[in-house]
Write a structure and sequence with these properties.
Layout: E1 5-11, E2 14-20, E3 31-37, E4 46-48, E5 51-54, E6 57-60, E7 67-77, E8 80-91
Antiparallel strand pairs: 1-2, 2-6, 3-4, 3-7, 5-6, 7-8
């Protein structure tokens, strides 16, 4: 409903996320959380620790192993979730 555009790039050891509002402006007043969920065994799930690196841009340099994962990205403001995305990704 908000028409936000959230782009993510994930590779071994790194996740980059960029978020823009409907007008194309960077989202600067939101917090981002990201999780890699293992599709068959939740014991392997990884909660990432993204750090803001610019206006509407975050990076997480964590233990991100190769394989198939569900990437869950959430954007929130003052504890209220405003956006949630779940996508299957393959990391090589």
């Amino acid at each position: 409903a908000r028409h936000w555009q959230v782009d993510a790039h994930v590779e071994p050891g790194r996740l980059d996320v960029a978020a823009r509002d409907a007008a194309g402006r960077p989202l600067t007043d939101v917090a981002l959380s990201a999780t890699l969920r293992h599709p068959t065994d939740r014991r392997f799930d990884v909660t990432l620790d993204p750090v803001k690196v610019g206006a509407g841009q975050w990076r997480a340099s964590d233990t991100i192993n190769a394989g198939q994962w569900e990437l869950v990205i959430e954007l929130s403001r003052d504890g209220e979730r405003l956006f949630r995305s779940t996508n299957r990704v393959v990391i090589r």
